[in-house]
Amino acid sequence: MVAAPEAPAMGASLPDTFPRLLLQHARVRGDRPAMREKDLGIWQSWNWAQVADEVAAMACGLAELGFKRGDRLAIIGDNRPRLYWAMCAAQTLGGIPVPLYQDAVAQEMVFVLQDADIKIAIVEDQEQVDKLLEVRDQCPALQHILYDEPRGLRHYTQTFLHGLDEVLAMGRIHNKNQPDFIDQEIALGKTDDVSVILYTSGTTGKPKGVCQSHHAFIAAARGGIEVDRLVADGNILSYLPMAWVGDHLFSYAQAMVAGFTVNCPESGETVMIDMREIGPSYYFAPPRVFENLLTQVMIRMEDAGHIKRSMFHFFMAVAKRCGAEILDGKPVGFKDGLLYALGNLLVFGPLRNVLGMSRIRVAYTAGAAIGPDLFKFYRSIGVNLKQFYGQTETCAAVCLQPDSQIKFDSVGPPMPNVEVKIAASGEILVNGPMLLKEYYKRPDATAESIDADGYFHTGDAGFFDNDGHLKIIDRAKDVGKLAGGAMFAPNYLENKLKFFPHIKEAVCFGHDRDMVCAFINIDIGAVGNWAERRGIAYAGYTDLTAKPEVYSLIQECIEQVNADLAADAMVADTQVHRFLILHKELDPDDDELTRTRKVRRGFVAEKYAVLVEALYTGKTSQFIETLVRFEDGRTGNVSADLQIRELKTFAKGAA
Q1: For residue 75, is pLDDT > 70?
Q2: Where in the chain is the domain with CATH 3.30.300.30?
Q3: What is the DSSP string of 301-344?
Q4: Could you report the per-residue pLDDT of 371-394, keeping only the tens digit for each?
Q5: Rounded to 5 degrees, what are φ and ψ at 631?
Q6: Does residue 641 sit in helix, strand or coil?
Q7: Where exactly does CATH 3.40.50.12780 map onto the chain?
Q8: pLDDT for residue 631
């Protein structure tokens, strides 16, 4: 596939800020769709010329409210066209958008609102307005709150509250009276200006505001576009949090550079339906989303009739044997090729269609390590899934797997214009145009993370293989050793465990210990379905986790992982010896996970220290009572007497 004729060639003459990129798209492909949104079951569409007009009106409206160069604009809500336009509107005026996680509770938002000195906040709806009203007294810099969806806000009388329709109308009058204003403001913008502040997930402490320039994100976007030949006639489904660097790269930066269409689903609950309707050509999801999709597939297969279930497992065995090689264009035996073609007709094609992946040219996963078995599954059914590697501080762009060079245990070679080297300690160091400008108001952290040679210290441990592909072991701080000296990489083990549809989350312990033990969170959907089909009654999550049958199910899964680990000499000593099933799901609202669903390992170990101790002192059960926080701010307690089970382990070299 080649780029559309009007797409500009990669070169130095390309616009160097996002507002200038928007103006160029409005000129060269003004009538092509830029954004779509599903509202009340109907897809609404805006072309590039209309988007440029809306952004100009919003920028003028913000200017009327006193927003000026250098000010910070908070953006809070689900993926909505107007919220993406708000980013560009702020940048048009030389301001800085600061997206926040929409599912954060009010008190979590206070830190970012205060730290970034937010002057104006644009939010999606009443839910987000209420959160800001709850904490506004703690945020003295916050002058105005603008909302997109007016439903439920009719009787809110605060003078600092404004509907976006009102602001846009005000902006259009301003634009009419000062027609040169927007062009002048855009002309003042510099490519090295900060284009966005994205806050880190705060896995080990308070989040840090990562200041990224226009130049950095545009360079990162062009690198990915160059490797995978992303073109203007493609489209993407935008459903991941706008505050996450991955969404900002794909749904904003790459869309602005390449000119493809961004589609916003109606709600989080309709993502799969909307994805099937759109049929995106590019798709991006963290491993947990691919895990959930696979879990749903396996649940449906368990409910299917005997013939359909047998056919599925037969052809999946064929796919596992040769599917990835066929996708990469490598030769396979005649029999396997014929069986795979039949499987594609009867199983793989319908499965991709159910998943909304029929038209995908390239799919990406990042944000955490993906289990090799999960990665192989998608590639074996014909989805061109690739891993890439990056962080908030690198615009999510460091390494990317090129076509036909896919390895299940690597993240590919460095992207164009990116330098990667491995420190003597094993830490991955990165340099290139996509590096952060600074941490906002944290010169100490900036100096600590970027060395004298300009290399950013990622905090990840890894190495290059013989083909120049980077392999990630784990977070450098998390890689430890067992008491016997064997390397202990908890994330590697956890990803192998989470391949099973019945296991939603796992936390492994073992550093400086004589064996590895694990906490398990079950997947309530998969295990609940499994239990119901066997006539096992349960009253809720905590009750289900205590069932002996569920413990036996999870034990079988972990012992399969142990058998797999035993076959690999490097990790054979890290087989799991004991485990328990937690009585509650790990939750961001309880500070056990970050908003990007990464485990706060140190916090979990400290919070559940009594359970860790029970695992390592030979106990067969342990009582625990835990405080939980509900979405509406209320708190409660959940208690249980947790079973602890021994696991079968295997001799090194055995399979």
Answers
A1: yes
A2: 480-646
A3: HHHS-HHHHHHHHHHHHHHHHHHHHHHTT----HHHHHHHHHHI
A4: 777 889 999 999 999 999 999 999
A5: -60, -30
A6: strand
A7: 18-214+239-262
A8: 66
- H/E/C letters for each residue in 140-197? CCCCEEEECCCCCCCCCCCCCEEEHHHHHHHHHHHHHHCCCHHHHHHHHCCCCCEEEE
Q: What residues have CB less than 8 Å from 556, skipping those under 6 apart? A: none
Rounded to the nearest 5°, which phi and psi values hold at 490?
-60, -40
Please report the sign of the dihedral spanned by the C-alpha atoms of residue 428, residue 432, residue 433, residue 438. positive
Q: Within 81-145, where are the H helices?
A: 81-92, 106-115, 126-135
Residue 93 in tokens: 């005026």
Would you say 252 and 426 are in contact if contact means Cβ atoms under 8 Å apart?
A: no
For 521, the token pair is 């969170």
- Among candidates 655, 654, 652, 599, which has minimal Cα distance to 486? 652
Give the pLDDT of residue 12.
42
Residue in the block written with tokens 């708000």: 86
d(CA 588, CA 325): 39
Q: How many C-beta neighbours within 10 Å does residue 634 have?
A: 8
Cβ(585)–Cβ(504) below 8 Å: yes
Mean pLDDT of the chain: 91
Distance set, CA 511 to CA 152, 370, 484, 582 (Å): 52, 22, 10, 21
Q: Compute the distance between CA of residue 335 and CA of residue 340 in angstroms, rounded to an integer.
A: 8
In angstroms, the CA 567 to CA 492 distance is: 15
User: What would the two tokens of residue 444 be?
Assistant: 């100490």
- From the CA atom positions of the chain, what is the Rg in Å? 25
Question: Which tokens belong to 481?
Answer: 């050793």
**500-527: pLDDT as tens digits:** 889 999 999 999 999 999 999 999 988 9
What is d(CA 99, CA 97) in angstroms, rounded to the nearest whole number? 6
Over residues 345-370, the mean pLDDT reads: 90
Separation CA 398–CA 392 (nearest Å): 11
| Long-range pairs for 148-151: beta carbons < 8 A, 24 or more residues apart | 148/77, 148/80, 148/82, 148/83, 148/122, 148/123, 148/124, 149/124, 149/125, 151/125, 151/126
CATH 3.30.300.30 correct for 480-646: yes
Q: Residue 603 corresponds to which tokens in the numbers above?
A: 């916090």
- Protein fold of 18-214+239-262: Rossmann fold (3.40.50)
Which of 88, 81, 76, 99 minimizes the C-alpha distance to 147? 76
Cα 260 to the center of its chain, rounded Å = 20
